């Protein structure tokens, strides 16, 4: 979307992974800095103010969400894209709720990663198929259980619309935004707004089911 | 001529005229050495008195000791002070002066000896008042023993002191510290008090309390023993527990080591050998990743047969099989989960067939497998971005497969929709209603 190449900071405790990503993304984004732990990352990001931070969910000095929270408090304009090798829903949901604009697995291809960085830089949300599955699972769990009726249920933030569900299902099936637009006869822009809306609900919803769901998934 | 080192080291100035007589029978137990009676520290158990007598008269030290113990038993304990006196008055081998000659001038030592002896006399008086019986008979000679030992302790050369310490050591070892610190000293004092009380009670059994008192005495004695030896037992138990923990840790390390070796290293070796075949490398890496992930994060042993009892497990199985057999990555996402029944087993078979189809024919780089469990139905979508096909012009062999998918679903009341066009990829949407009945044991 944006014409200029996004400025990116890499935060990951594996030097090998950082250099790999830097080499792969080299041409398509501008990697302006790297950090390997929570505190150095916070300092570096505050100093460089990049467009996008590629953030590993797991860092030795605390989770990735610690970085997101600290930076968001000072510089809300910095956007985060979470990367993880573990796919543990608990970690992913935590970093998204801390304020990351999206989540992709580390096995993602270079082209897709560059595309995801650009979309996050442009203010869109990026959902991997796995995250879409998590969200569907988390938001599906409660409304369908008849015993789980509660007063806060009607809050708009606490449930997904039918359209949002459809979009998420297609993302989970590996569709790109363009393919989703075509499939649902809507514009790509509309798809993006649906995804952003889901992200907002994911971040702002007070449903305790979200946390409980994530915790249960971990135990299962 | 032998020179037992200890004599020279410990008593350098006391070799005297008897040094030339050589060692008194440490190993030379012939018919006595003919010299004067001397204690034999080299072959000692206590003060070396028995060994000395044995060497002097040419007996075996063991015989002398047995005789000594018998004398002690017959004389109700008088053998012990006798021995202590001998220790005091008989000079050690190679010397000419006895301990007593030194102790005579040791005012402090004499006071200590008298003090200890009078303390024991006091205890005996109490025991007498409490009807102590045979205890008094055995303990009264020890008044002299205690006084003599105190003098020996104060005045004997280092070597004899070391022997005394050694004789007392079992107590220290039993309480867990050879050199008791303040806490264990306090513990020992309490244990001693309990023991004394318990023994006193035991020996003072009057008729009126004949049943109660021995019981109380026994309890006190047991308490004393527990207090004195408890920490030692505890330490042994703790050591055992630590040992078990260490073993468990070692086992786990072995397990992890075996796992890493068996699968991860093997796969890495395979990847190096197949470096020229990117597709194979990706397949191997994914297989290993999935295996490791299921082992690390889900606690499942990949070698265990996946029981396929739930939809999610079934989807995982399809993913694994197809990736292993056709080398095409399968991105599986499952939303919700439920146990399998016959209908859902049929659904999974159909989904498996559709996935295999996509892997064999579509030439797509990746296949998406999406399963969603809803209250009313379970749907599975198998999708690829491959070459697709014209449904009107399906080759016979593929039509057969499509039919079997359709047929399988229809027989169970489900639906199968295939959406495809040449160059557009293929999407198979399978939906199966959930029966309210639990799964049969098919």
Architecture overview:
- The complex is a heterodimer of chains A (220) and B (442).
- Chain A is α/β, with parallel strands linked by helices.
- Chain A has ten helices and eight strands.
- Chain A has two domains: 7-124, Rossmann fold; 131-219, Arc Repressor Mutant, subunit A (Orthogonal Bundle), CATH 1.10.10.
- In chain A, the strands form two sheets. In chain A, strands 2-1-3-6-7-8 form a six-stranded parallel sheet, sandwiched between helices.
- In chain A, strand 1 (7-11), helix 1 and strand 2 form a beta-alpha-beta unit.
- In chain A, helix 4 (89-98) packs across helix 9 and helix 6 (129-144) packs across helix 10.
- The radius of gyration of chain A is 17 Å and the shape is globular.
- Chain B is α+β, with helices and mostly antiparallel strands and 442 residues long.
- Chain B folds into three domains: 5-174, no CATH class; 178-304, no CATH class; 307-433, Heat Shock Protein 90, CATH 3.30.565.10.
- In chain B, helix 14 (342-361) links the parallel strand 1 and strand 2.
- The A-B interface holds A 86-88, 107, 129-130, 132-133, 136-137, 140-141, 144, 169, 172-175, 220 and B 286, 289, 293, 297-298, 331, 333-336, 366, 368, 370, 372, 374-375, 381, 383, 385, 427.
């Amino acid at each position: 979307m944006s014409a200029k190449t996004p400025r990116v900071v890499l935060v990951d405790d594996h030097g090998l992974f950082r250099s790999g990503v830097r080499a792969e993304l080299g041409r398509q984004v501008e990697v302006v800095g790297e950090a390997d732990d929570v505190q150095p990352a916070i300092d570096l990001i505050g100093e460089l103010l990049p467009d996008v931070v590629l953030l590993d969910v797991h860092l030795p000095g605390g989770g990735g969400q610690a970085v997101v929270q600290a930076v968001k408090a000072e510089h809300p304009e910095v956007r985060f894209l979470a990367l993880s090798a573990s796919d543990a829903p608990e970690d992913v949901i935590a970093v998204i709720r801390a304020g990351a604009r999206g989540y992709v697995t580390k096995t993602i291809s270079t082209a897709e990663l560059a595309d995801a960085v650009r979309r996050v830089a442009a203010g869109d949300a990026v959902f991997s198929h796995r995250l879409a599955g998590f969200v569907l699972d988390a938001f599906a769990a409660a409304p369908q259980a008849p015993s789980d009726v509660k007063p806060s249920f009607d809050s708009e933030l606490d449930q997904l619309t039918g359209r949002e569900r459809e979009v998420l299902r297609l993302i989970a099936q590996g569709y790109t935004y363009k393919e989703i637009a075509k499939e649902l006869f809507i514009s790509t822009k509309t798809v993006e707004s649906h995804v952003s809306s889901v992200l907002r609900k994911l971040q702002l919803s007070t449903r305790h089911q979200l946390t409980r769901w994530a915790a249960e998934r971990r135990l299962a | 001529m032998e020179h037992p080192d200890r004599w020279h080291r410990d008593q350098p100035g006391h070799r005297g005229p008897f040094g030339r007589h050589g060692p008194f029978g440490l190993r030379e137990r012939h018919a006595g050495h003919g010299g004067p009676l001397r204690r034999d520290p080299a072959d000692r158990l206590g003060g070396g008195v028995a060994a000395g007598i044995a060497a002097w008269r040419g007996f075996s030290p063991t015989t002398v000791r047995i005789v000594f113990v018998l004398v002690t038993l017959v004389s109700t304990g008088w053998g012990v002070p006798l021995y202590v006196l001998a220790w005091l008055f008989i000079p050690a081998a190679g010397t000419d002066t006895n301990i007593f000659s030194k102790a005579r001038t040791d005012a402090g030592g004499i006071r200590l000896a008298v003090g200890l002896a009078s303390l024991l006399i006091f205890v005996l008086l109490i025991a007498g008042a409490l009807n102590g019986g045979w205890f008094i008979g055995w303990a009264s000679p020890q008044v002299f023993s205690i006084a003599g030992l105190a003098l020996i302790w104060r005045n004997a050369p280092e070597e004899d002191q070391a022997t005394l310490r050694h004789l007392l050591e079992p107590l220290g070892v039993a309480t867990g510290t050879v050199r008791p610190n303040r806490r264990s000293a306090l513990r020992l004092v309490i244990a001693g008090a309990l023991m004394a009380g318990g023994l006193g009670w035991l020996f003072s059994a009057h008729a009126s309390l004949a049943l109660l008192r021995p019981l109380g005495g026994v309890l006190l004695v047991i308490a004393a023993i527990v207090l004195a030896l408890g920490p030692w037992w505890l330490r042994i138990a703790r050591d055992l527990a630590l040992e078990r923990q260490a073993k468990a840790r070692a086992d786990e390390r072995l397990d992890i080591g075996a796992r890493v070796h068996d699968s991860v290293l093997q796969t890495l070796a395979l990847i190096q050998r197949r470096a020229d075949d990117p597709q194979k490398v990706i397949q191997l890496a994914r297989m290993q990743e999935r295996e490791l992930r299921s082992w690390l994060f889900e606690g499942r042993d990949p070698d265990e047969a996946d029981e396929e009892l739930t939809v999610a497990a079934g989807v995982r199985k399809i993913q694994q099989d197809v990736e292993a057999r056709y080398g095409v990555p399968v991105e599986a996402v499952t939303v919700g989960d439920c146990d399998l029944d016959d209908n859902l087993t049929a659904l999974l078979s159909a989904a498996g067939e559709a996935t295999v189809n996509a892997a064999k024919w579509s030439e797509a780089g990746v296949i998406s497998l999406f399963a969603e469990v809803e209250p009313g139905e379970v749907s599975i979508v198998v999708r690829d971005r491959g070459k697709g096909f014209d449904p009107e012009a399906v080759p016979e062999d593929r039509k057969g497969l499509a039919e079997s998918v359709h047929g399988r679903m229809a027989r169970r009341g489900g639906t199968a929709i295939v959406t495809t066009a040449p160059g557009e990829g293929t999407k198979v949407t399978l939906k199966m209603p959930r029966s309210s009945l639990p799964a049969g044991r098919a």
